[in-house]
């Protein structure tokens, strides 16, 4: 994992893009799956 990668900032950016309607359905679905995946990884 890239230590410079900050998921919080990235997710906020993606969330804004989703709110602005700039994301495709596939990207939205992927973002929706991310938190669940993170929970699985971190236990």
Describe the protein in words.
The model has no long low-confidence stretch (mean pLDDT 75). Helix content is 72%, strand content 0%. It is an all-alpha fold. It has two helices and no strands. The two termini are 17 Å apart. The relative contact order is 0.12. It is flat, with a radius of gyration of 11 Å.
Keywords:
mainly alpha, 43 residues
- What is the straight-line distance between the termini? 17 Å
Radius of gyration: 11 Å
Mean pLDDT: 75
> What fraction of the residues are assigned to beta strands by DSSP?
under 5%
Alpha plus pi helix count: 2
How does the helix and strand content classify structurally?
Answer: mainly alpha
Largest sheet: none
Shape: flat
H/E element sequence: HH
- How many strands appear in the DSSP assignment? 0
Question: Spans with pLDDT under 50 lasting ≥5 residues?
Answer: none
| Helix content bin | over 70%
A few lines on this structure:
The chain has 43 residues and is mainly alpha-helical.
Can you lay out the helices and strands and say which pair or pack?
Blueprint: H1 7-19, H2 25-42
């Amino acid at each position: 994992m890239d230590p410079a990668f900050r998921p919080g900032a990235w997710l906020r950016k993606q969330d804004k893009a989703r709110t602005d309607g700039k994301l495709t359905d596939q990207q939205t679905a992927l973002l929706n799956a991310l938190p669940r995946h993170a929970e699985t990884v971190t236990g």
